[in-house]
Predict the structure.
Amino acid sequence: MKVVSDKVSLRKARASFKGTVGFVPTMGALHAGHASLVERSARDNDRTVVSIFVNPTQFGPKEDFSKYPRTLEADLALCRKAGADLVYTPATLYDKDHQTWIDVENVAAPLCGERRPGHFRGVATVVAKFFNLVQPTRVYFGQKDAQQAMLLTTMARELDFPLEVITCPTVREADGLAMSSRNRYLSPDERKRALVISRTLHAVQTLFDKGERDVDKLESVMESALGAEVDRVDYAEIRRWRDLGEIKMIEEPVLATIAVFVGNTRLIDNIVLTPKRGKLASRQGAKRPA
Ligand code: PAF
């Protein structure tokens, strides 16, 4: 596995690759969720590239950019084990007076976009830069960051990046907590209280399986379950899966999505609820969301 940190070496190494190239962009502090993306890429492609870069432009002024965990040696060991061929670790990616930004308007508007102004603009811009530098055949994101995956799928399609975006299932700890680089901020008590997130999603799934389709009812179940354990509920919402639009009744696939603060740590998680398709819908060839 080769490690490079400047654009010239990256382009040179990339040019030496024949066949398909999978790409996993990351901010480091890697865990089993990232490993599953790298492994999937290594299975699907001839070569796999991972980037490790804590991207300053996606953090708000009061967010955790400076204290975001940086664990390069352990990250490189994980990449090697998971099957990466090339790891790109730039020190910076922006000119001092960087002025070109990508806004994916509608997908970025609600949920995390509303609560973290500028966040998705930073994500879209850095990922577009990576797409140009790495020129991957396929790129892999985790479903835990569902809105991010949706936004980057939209960006790739609308800006004609010649690549396939693949969204992979959320990887969970044995007790249900979604893997996240930010889990390491949690104290033992916070770690215990954070379990309410996956428990709440499980409860929503159970109510949905029993036939509950009323969004207000499901959202109030989420809010009261979370409110009892976490320090702040940032949002607990059910949104249309295909475009994150608001709905009243579940008649098509939806995202049940949560963002909460446990102590000072912001955690997110989600599940997709898919009603069984009626005969009419399947006969008409109703489109499944990407
Ligand atoms: O999901 C992340 O780790 C980041 O948002 C990404 C996609 C690497 C862009 O900095």
In short: The pocket of pantoate is lined by residues 25-27, 55, 58, 123, 126-127, 145, 148 (CB under 6 Å). The CA atoms of residues 236 and 258 lie 4 Å apart. The radius of gyration is 19 Å. Residues 2-168 form a domain with the Rossmann fold fold (CATH 3.40.50.620).
